[in-house]
Amino acid sequence: MSRAPKILVFDSGLGGLTVFAEVTRLRPDARIIYAADDAGFPYGALSEEALIARVLSVVQRLIARYAPDAVIIACNTAATLVLPHLRAQFSQTPFIGTVPAIKPAASQSRSKLISVLATPGTVARDYTRDLVRAYAADCQVTLVGSSALAGLAEAFMQGESPSQEAIWREIAPSFVARDGRRTDCIVLACTHYPLLIEHFVHLAPWPVQWIDPAPAIARRTDYVLSEDLGFRRVSAQAPEASNHALFTGPSAPGPKLAEALRARGIEKISMEPMPLVFA
Ligand code: DGL
């Protein structure tokens, strides 16, 4: 293929930017449409039924409009539930998901005490529990569902400085000391969390490995583009490969967020209001 590949990176908000950053590093030739479904945020609070309906309808509109070559669901809360539905409904489009990195955490852990920090939705999923059974049977796994962290990460990206107490309250249950052992790996199973990583590292009572799946998702995306779709990797940005962020909420991003997006290589910002309605 001689044209630039077009990728849709989808999340409920700004968390998918952590995946976007890795994908642009590996595939600077790709044109990326970053879609933040901020009208639906936070996904962690939606019922499974509402979340499936919401993601299917927003992705349907985005695929119809942008015809991406591949779609990255850069959201654990959505991917652990909606991926099979998306693949069934849009069978011509390759989907790359983001799911809790429990397997690498279990294999890297020496203390065999690992924690999974995620939204309440992701923590409750059968998908997550199956990953624990399949890959972390030799570990003691603490699942920590946080209702507040994704919102704190959103506010941080809008220029607010987050309360250290509020962050600590959410991450504290991830640090477990038992029988002379301590948690040594914490899975960042929500794409919003790496946005707050400096705060996590600063607040941690002892050093741990924070497992961010974004580099692995970027490698998988590169594989799909190169091997499955025939887009040869080129190291320079194609002239038409400008990146674009769109938001489904009613209000445009403030100046601080627009600046943060520009710093990440996103110049164009647009609004496509898609209000969240419950049947
Ligand atoms: N970024 C999403 C994830 O990876 C969750 C944020 C939300 O609750 O919408 O799970």
Question: In summary, what is this structure?
Answer:
The protein has helices at residues 17-26, 48-66, 76-89, 102-108, 120-124, 126-135, 149-157, 164-171, 197-203, 214-228, 255-263; strands at residues 6-11, 31-36, 70-73, 95-96, 113-118, 140-145, 177-178, 181-182, 185-188, 209-211, 243-247, 266-271.
Verbal overview:
This protein is α/β, with parallel strands linked by helices. The chain has two domains: about 5-100 and about 215-270, Rossmann fold (3-Layer(aba) Sandwich), CATH 3.40.50; about 100-210, Rossmann fold (3-Layer(aba) Sandwich), CATH 3.40.50. The protein is built from eleven helices and twelve strands. The mean pLDDT is about 95. Bound molecules: D-glutamic acid (DGL). D-glutamic acid (DGL) binds near residues 75 and 191.
Topology:
Layout: E1 6-11, H1 17-26, E2 31-36, H2 48-66, E3 70-73, H3 76-89, E4 95-96, H4 102-108, E5 113-118, H5 120-124, H6 126-135, E6 140-145, H7 149-157, H8 164-171, E7 177-178, E8 181-182, E9 185-188, H9 197-203, E10 209-211, H10 214-228, E11 243-247, H11 255-263, E12 266-271
Parallel strand pairs: 1-2, 1-3, 2-11, 3-4, 5-6, 5-9, 9-10, 11-12
Antiparallel strand pairs: 7-8
Helix pairs in contact: 1-10, 2-3, 4-6
